[in-house]
Backbone:
């Protein structure tokens, strides 16, 4: 579960402070699929990054499965991220010198679970339709295939929470639809809470809930009739 209370984020710009987030209150239950929408500059990616612990808030509280992370030391935060969180970057962020299999194995190896890493990587790459591409490097894969590797890597450590920044943003409509099917299938299989920043109406339509940000505040909340993947 994600529990956010009175969350604020400001950045210095010259002689004044720019408010990015202004008092966000949000609870995301286990297994929920939450879509975050809003115009450019509304604070969507900032909110996602704060939940992931990539940055620290100016004020307020973020709790992941009951653990307060907003003032946690970086080493402890890195350990918690490794245990609880998966993150899908819009630009994939694969390591170019590693094969698809090695990219997916990496989170497990960093956790000292090397023995299980290879089997888990092969299982997940097969689940996303890349069983025949496990030894290929990112440069040998299409954009859609790279995004599938990124999804497999994000699920490798069986995170309780997966965060995704525009998971279909760089993909054509056909590939984007396939990525959504894979994402929701992995959610059902792994029981992972999904929080996704998106402009994709198909993704939002299939979420359990949509929140919309504007000027750093939640201005609307919708539960689509067809939500739940």
Residues:
């Amino acid at each position: 579960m994600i529990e956010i209370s009175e969350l604020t984020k400001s950045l210095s710009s010259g002689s004044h402070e720019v408010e990015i987030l202004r008092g966000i209150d949000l609870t995301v239950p286990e297994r929920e699929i939450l879509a975050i929408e809003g115009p450019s500059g509304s604070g969507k990616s900032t909110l996602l990054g704060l939940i992931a612990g990539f940055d620290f808030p100016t004020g307020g509280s973020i709790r992941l499965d009951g653990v307060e992370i907003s003032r946690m030391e970086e080493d402890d935060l890195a350990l918690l991220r490794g245990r609880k969180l998966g993150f899908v970057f819009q630009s994939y962020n694969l390591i170019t010198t590693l094969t698809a299999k090695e990219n997916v194995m990496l989170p497990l190896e960093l956790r000292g679970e090397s023995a299980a890493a290879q089997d888990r990587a092969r299982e997940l790459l097969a689940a996303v339709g890349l069983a025949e591409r496990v030894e290929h490097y990112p440069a040998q894969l299409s954009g859609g295939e790279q995004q599938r590797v990124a999804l497999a890597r994000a699920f490798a450590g069986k995170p309780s929470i997966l965060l995704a920044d525009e998971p279909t943003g760089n993909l054509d409509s056909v590939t984007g639809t396939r990525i959504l099917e894979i994402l929701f299938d992995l959610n059902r299989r792994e029981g992972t809470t999904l929080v996704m920043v998106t402009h994709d109406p198909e993704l939002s339509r299939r979420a359990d809930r949509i929140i919309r940000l504007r000027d750093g505040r939640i201005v609307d909340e919708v539960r689509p009739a067809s939500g739940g993947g």
Summary: Residues 2-222 form a domain with the Rossmann fold fold (CATH 3.40.50.300).
